[in-house]
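User: Show me a protein chain along with its predicted structure.
Assistant: Here is one chain, sequence first, then structure tokens.
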Amino acid sequence: MHNRYLVLTELFLPTKGGTAVWFDEVYRRLGGKEIHIVTADVPGAHEYDVGHPNNVHRLNLKRVPWLRPESLAMYLKFFAKSLWLALTNRFDAIHAGRALPEGLVAWLVARLTGRPVAIYAHGEELTGWGKGKKYKAMCFALRHADRVIANSDFTRDTLVGMGVKPERIDLIHPGVDIARFRPGLPFQDLRDSLSLGAGAKLILSVGRLSRRKGFDTVIRCLPDLTKSGLNVHYAIVGIGEDEAYLDALAREVGVAERVHRLGHVPMDDLPRWYNACDVFVLANRDVGGDTEGFGIVFLEAAACGKPAIAGRAGGTGSAVLDGVTGVRVDASSSAELLQAFSSILNDEDTRKRLGAAGLARTTQSLSWQAVAERTRLLKV
């Protein structure tokens, strides 16, 4: 039997990012047109929605600068559309992509129409908003939801600290497309494009170029790694506000020719870049409460059979099992990171062992099909 859900999420494909991918991958597997998704209208949405198995409703959710609060119009649009759908369809439950804005609207619609409500929590939004009105509204939505879905142990612990009852929290990790991200893909042309010799070691990072993701700490490790005799290169996939900063830093520490900023890469090339690397790293750290909630990129690397190095901050412990599928380090400075690089890059057996364990874990329990099944079994 298919579940009938009303899903409210501002983030949904073709919008970029892990959360948008998560909701698309899971709900398309949970049912067809009886699942209604209310989301933001973005460029390319119409073409994307034509072949979608679910019923996708697009709204203009842009903030209006002269309104106070400027998100008022967005909330009202979300509310009107969702309430109408809830009154005209027999939904089993209402699911919200985050506490704000979707969760607050979902809670209200659920209470007005007698449906249960589940709200997803991802981690970074819980710690990055201070303790003002937004935070209070977020706490209200999460404490009053029937279920809260946490993406990591870190997120679950943070929710408990915010007053959410532990028995209402379900732990569901995000997943990975194991048909797309897999070992054995051709990659020699990618290594050749960086002029890597036969013995060169390639470190890879994928993510938005923001300070908390620690690309700068990796760059600072490169001079010491080369001094130790490693012919090491660093490829970075992603765009963001730190582009100029990272380029300047690479020149400053004398490794500009070893740092390759690739920007956006074609969809088909991303799994091949994971295959091309020797180790994947996201040396994430906490910057003013902004932290990594989970890190789907770690699963993408694991699904391609690659070991990962992660920062200890945030929820990466659920994505990288320390000593099993990779290594977690204190990435606020380069000392531990340097040690992790040395031990993994100098030891092929370690690389193979960690990579094989990561691959086994993703195929067994972190495919999107497995995540969809766990979502189906929720008590709402």
